[in-house]
Amino acid sequence: MSQLDRDLPAEALISGGEASLDGLYTPEGADLLLDLRLESVVEGVLATGRVSGSLVAECVRCLDPVEVEVDADFQELFYYDLEDLSAEELEEAVSVVEDLLDVEALVRDALVLELPLQPLCEPDCPGLCPECGAALAEDPEHHHDSVDPRWAALSALSEDSEPAEQ
Ligand SMILES: [Zn+2]
Ligand SMILES: [Zn+2]
User: What phi and psi, each to the nearest 5 degrees, are found at residue 122?
Assistant: First the structure.
């Protein structure tokens, strides 16, 4: 059995891979610690670990940077040999490939499950003015006197627009 604790390069987790965190989270300002235990069992290597720390995202409403805390546990058995597994087990199974374990993918999956898909700087972040893009949190009185009706119709069509304030 071996154990390791180390700082995790966030670049490796955020860029690339199927369960990519690209677009939402950035490697800058990330601070992740990996705590990993590897145990040799009959079928393969059992990897148990925890990834904790923080990542930086963009608030989906106002685009301000948001620091998101994470603390995710994971466990995976890396099989030496996949031949004896049932079809159902095979779908989820990972194996030891040329004596290497893809721990990155494991950590990334654990993070994806844990991190919010819609990070917000504040739960009630008012976002940006749909007309001029001003940050409404900094200027709660912000409004426009005249709303061009053609523009109002357009903003009603855009997916996540909020009703225009009068
Ligand atoms: Zn925000
Ligand atoms: Zn405005």
Answer: -140, 145
Total domains, the chain: 2
Ligand that lies nearest to the alpha carbon of residue 139, given by its number in the listed order? 2
- Give the strand pairing for 2-8 and 44-58: unpaired
> Closest ligand to 125 CA?
1
51 C-alpha to ligand 1 centroid (Å): 26
pLDDT tens sequence across 108-151: 888 888 888 889 999 999 999 988 999 998 888 898 876 666 66
For residue 145, the CA-to-ligand 2 centroid distance in Å is: 10
Is residue 8 in a domain?
yes
Distance 139 CA to ligand 2 centre (A): 10
Does pTM top 0.85 for this prediction? no
Where helices occur in 10-166 by DSSP H, the ranges are 10-14, 87-92, 103-114, 149-157
